[in-house]
Amino acid sequence: MARSFLGKKLGEFRVLREIGRGSMGIVFEAEQEGLKRRVAVKVLPPSLSVTRTVIQRFLREAQSIAKLSHENIVQIYEIGESENVNWYAMQFVEGKSLDRAFKDRKFSPQDCARIVAASARALFYAHENGIIHRDIKPANLILTYKDKPVITDFGLARPEKAATLTESGALVGTPIYMSPEQVRGDRDHIDRRTDIYSLGVTLYEMLTGTIPFEATSTQEILRKIEAEDPRPIRKVAPHVPRALATICHKALEKELERRYQTAIEFALDLERFLAGEAIQARPMGFSTRMLRRARRHKVITSLVAASIVLGGLVVVQTMRSRTQQRENQLGRYQTVLAEGRAAVESGNTADALLKFTEAIALKPDDATFYVERGKAFYKLSRYEEAIRDFTQALTLDPNQARARVWRGTTMCQEGSPEERSRGFEEVMQVLEQNPDNSECLKVAVNLVMSFARNSARAQREELLKSASRWVQHALELNANDDEALVLQGNLYEEDGVYFRDASLIDLAYANYDKAKRINKQNLQALNLLARSKDSLLPKSTKGAGGATTAGNAPSSWLFTLAAEGLTWAKDRVEVPTDLLSKTASLFVPSTGGTNEPSLAGVDLDQLERLLEQANAAWNEEDYARAIALYQNALVMHPNTLEAHHRIAEYCLGAEHEDLPRARASIDKALAAAPSNLRTLMLAFRVYNAQREPERMKEVIELATKFHPALLTVPDVQEFLRAQGIGDASQTPQSPPSTNDGGASGGSKKQT
């Protein structure tokens, strides 16, 4: 059968020779003709493709490998089918299988520890990506000529939470290397610890040259795996160091709770042995062995024996505690933590996850590591695992604010509305208790922005108002906080897109650029800057005043009130509650003057419809009709801010330039809303066109007070240089109030 494939092409791979046979087919060496490289091609012969189950298992093996990218796991290149033959191409590993290697040469204990430690780290990586191998054995470990192990043959691999036996209940795997739970057919407990046991058997065989249990039949082997302890390594091979034998026996523990719980713990103990340090594993004491023997023979254990066991446990725990303290003093876990955080900074979240898990293995009672790993899980959208880690951190340290705020954030990502509500409340409680917690401020900003995108307009305004306040406070705590600068840019962009305002998009990009200059490794800033600004405003056309508008703009995009608009409406106007948000959307805040326009008798619904019609006409470039409608809106109420803005913008246009009229409109808007960002931006353009430097200076002063980000606009910078006013770009930025989509701003005190 194998000969029939020689010289045959499978896709772009030409089969050269057979190099091995696995549980699910034949492996050939082949040449990828396009790239002129050697590969290994695994083929499922037609004789084995008789059932859908076999084909699915073969494809599952390929898919399992394809999910993984690790130097000690064979890499897959392509999956295909040619003339009813299923195959996949993978990395060609030069070397020989481990079972052949240790028959040809004798490995030192140190070599054994080094090879198995590398294999354990690779297994840990696979486990963290949800794959359990279930058939670890020397034949499935290829040893390169540099003694680097590479795990192959994932034919029995399954997702960790999937069923672990065939539907008929048949055993899967090679009997000698099976774990006790596999022998028992215990579906619920065949997990990552099963692979640890099989790797432990491999280490035993490498150290002693024999297997842990010898028998004359498969049934006897299976019985011994389930019921008997393996022969002590140092009785079989006295030259093996006691510490290494202890590590191997821990991996071979029949009780899952006594075995290494993760492959990284197994690897770390082997690496401690190689470094000459104290290992975590402890040899089984006399009392424990006697207790096991008593249980096996159903003998009632005496009180004395129980006391011995208890005393032994106390001694073991004390020794473990002392070892842990020594390691903590050496600060090894701090190094691992730093490496994990560096991986997060570089965007390599998967590697960071491995580092934080290693840190937890080194110091399992430190809440910090659980928080860091939980954040890594969160970034990978593995929310269930993230919540588990944050909860564990709070169990270890109930005052861990970071764990509480991140758990609340994660709860908001999925789950029932009640769970999301509880998560949001948890974040808000932390923020209330720690108002100067920069991380909490930034997390809260991200959270409310995600809520705002799916909220009604009035609720959106309230949420973004809070986000704007929080991000500004974060920048007050640290003006060079690049993450906060990016978030502030996100707020500018959010409103720029929502209100189709290109000038706000420019401010957002200015923030991203400043964040990049502060931290060249800020991947979010780099990615945001890499986008074209035009892509944020689709189907754009040029408006009358030269501003960019959008042909697909919503029918109503009202510029909203300054930060305290709703409060003003509630305090000063007798209108039904359901009209308060509409009131806030249409008018500028009151300063308490006696001659200010009153809302009495104003039909707010009619005014909103009028503005919708005006905006629609503007977007259709029917400017004459749009301006007439905006004028009608000002007749209904002279403080309709959007109408002033549009008229000024129209009169700035080259085709119908009317600077005096533009100045009259912007003067009214500036008098009514001196803290409004859009008003300030238009005022600067109008006064610049009118050549009025004194008025421009007044606008600069207002911008410095309310919106320092405006000072980074190129035209403003040019004016400042011409006036000899220094470089305002160093002024800390403050965000626009997002109540008005960037159109109005200022806190109650400013208003």
Number of DSSP helical runs: 31
> What does the largest sheet look like?
6 strands, antiparallel
Q: What is the CATH homologous superfamily assignment of the largest domain?
A: Transferase(Phosphotransferase) domain 1
Question: Segments where pLDDT lies below 50 for 5+ residues?
Answer: 161-170, 296-301, 539-586, 588-594, 727-751
Under CATH, the topology of the largest domain can be stated as Transferase(Phosphotransferase), domain 1
- Widest β-sheet, arrangement of strands: 1-2-3-4-6-5
Oligomer: single chain
Terminal-residue CA separation: 86 Å
Gyration radius, in Å: 35 Å
- How many beta-strand elements? 13
The average pLDDT score comes to 76
Which structural class do the helices and strands define? alpha+beta
CATH class of the largest domain: Mainly Alpha
Strand content bin: 5-15%
- Overall outline: elongated
The residue fraction in helices comes out at 40-55%
Q: What would CATH call the architecture of the largest domain? A: Orthogonal Bundle
Count of discrete structural domains: 4
